[in-house]
Amino acid sequence: MQLSTRRDLAPDLARGVMLSLIALAHAQFLAGGGAFGGATAAVTAPDKLVQALLTLFVDSRGYPLFAALFGYGMVLILRRRDPKQLRKRSLWLIAFGFLHVVLLFPGDILASYGILALCFAGAVHWSTRRIFLTAGIGAVLGAVVYGLVMSSPMPMPEGALPTDPISSALMRVTTFPLLTPLNAIMSICPLLIGVWAARERVLENPALLRRAASIGIGIGVLGGIPQTLVTTGFLAPNLASGALHTFSGYAVGIGYGALFTLIARRLRPGPVVTALTACGQRSLTCYLAQSVAWFIIAEPYLLNLNGQFSVVAAAALGVGVWGLTVLVAAWLGKAGRPGPAEALLRRLAYS
Questions:
Q1: Angle at which helices 239-266 and 165-199 cross, to 10°
Q2: Are 280 and 338 in contact (CB under 8 A)?
Q3: What is the pTM of this model?
Q4: 211's torsion region: left (phi>0), alpha (psi -120 to 50) or beta?
Q5: pLDDT tens, 206-259?
Q6: Where in the chain are the domains?
Q7: Around Cβ 304, how many Cβ atoms within 10 Å?
Q8: How far is CA 169 from the centre of its chain?
């Protein structure tokens, strides 16, 4: 199959923009929110409004698109390289993810993606029926499992947070065997949709993209309403709202991907588009850079600002952290330099 050497703008632009959702989701802990949103500081009307918007459009909405883009990228890698190199790259992703947890942040997704790549590299050769059947099973399983977790809050006892680097690292390591398979289960459905989209060249079908954008985002907003009532304090956490929120998040993620593909087709390169695309091209570096920021801001032996912000202020800081990574990525792009994390992964995986 003859491939174009021109890099498609849409996936990079989508990654660059959607990293803002990752930052917004992670920043909620600064307002007392847990891993699944619902900040305890959401007491004023502006805070409740921002928390509602975060639940509807951010929480469990960004990662499905990243998983779909990862599946899309798997197909492109397999078209250009030997499958053994994809397996090697996947093993290194797992190693990167483990180090990410040990050194910086417990909510890693890299290791989960590495595991999924090992498990589903052969999906590029599956029939469409098998892909969608497996994706459907993964969606239901992910929704139920994550719904159970969301409806069973496990608050950290007062005084239980570690106050030194070694204890903090050890606590993060204990989350790795639990969160890594959980995040992998959550990502099965969108990853397989991404594999199918790349194989069938869905990004070249504007009519299908328009339907996916409108239907996917619409389903997500409706499906997120019950969980919005939970995170803003009007309902108690429950399995039904958590599962529905997660399930509808898959539709939003796919809808976001379709929307940004349509937007990318109409955009002309300019400073903003170039910067966002540079961020997407260096998404691994920018993702890890965000974790460095949260590490400095939240660790008890550093700034120790966990739970010290309003929801509005936490969201603003999240956007600021993302914006800083965009500026750095733009500078690297202008200098013609790859992201350091991407360069290291490429060197290890393809040498």
A1: 60
A2: no
A3: 0.91
A4: alpha
A5: 999 999 999 999 999 999 999 999 998 888 889 999 999 999 999 999 999 999
A6: 9-350
A7: 13
A8: 22
